[in-house]
Design a protein that fits this description.
about 290 residues; alpha/beta; Rossmann fold; five-stranded parallel beta sheet
Length: about 290
Amino acid sequence: MAKSSKPAARLSDLLRVPAGPVDLNALDTRATPGFDGGKAAGKASLAALGRRLSDLQERLHAEGVSGGTRSLLLILQGMDTSGKGGVVRHVIGQVDPQGCQIASFKAPTREELAHDFLWRIRRRLPGPGKLGVFDRSHYEDVLVVRVHDLVPRSTWSRRYASINRFEVQLVEHDIRVVKVFLHISKEEQRQRLLARLDDPTKHWKFNPHDVDERAYWADYQEAYGAVLERCNGDLAPWYRVPADRKWYRNWAIASLLVEQFEDMKLTWPKGDFDREAQRTRLLADA
């Protein structure tokens, strides 16, 4: 008998980062929690999930157009090549772009540096009815800033508390926050960077700086461990997605989003008009 590829429990529960210290080195980046099939089955399941995801996202969009205030923000964090762009393309790409707001946060501009580190984040939050996606986020200010000593320790160490307060405010303002750490191994990153070098159509994606950053791998793992431990509240928890297998990464995040949307109990808004009266008008207008 073929094995079932359906998760035995909610994937949100399986992937949620538990409270307490996190040792990323002890976690398998090639694991497939909640899925016991292979690559082909994973891709087939993703296609089916895409239809459900699209339906739920359209319901949220319709709710927003009809005066609703709720939205969902997906925050993607991970080392270079962990697949943030791939998630946007293969998962978010399955829903109606009219209902999405995607923001990619690179190194801050001079204008952004003149403000509090959350200023540029607030400006890109999803509006009512939107599925927002952050490719990197405010967490860069306790990750790359910490690793490269861009500000004093006394400055970045205070930001964990600021981030926690900020995310509580988001939830209080009807923004459901879904934070995903894409966990890739150093060896898998090396292979992906080599693949970019070997493929002329991917040279535009290759940045020599990514190779430089590999020298700080241990420092980044420590910094990510601190983030997963210190910014992991019940209102905005972290989910760790093993990302060495691209197909699993995509399936897992699509599944997470479907579960989150289903938790919102989204329904189609009812029209504020007399349906039969409008039908009669249209039939009479021959």
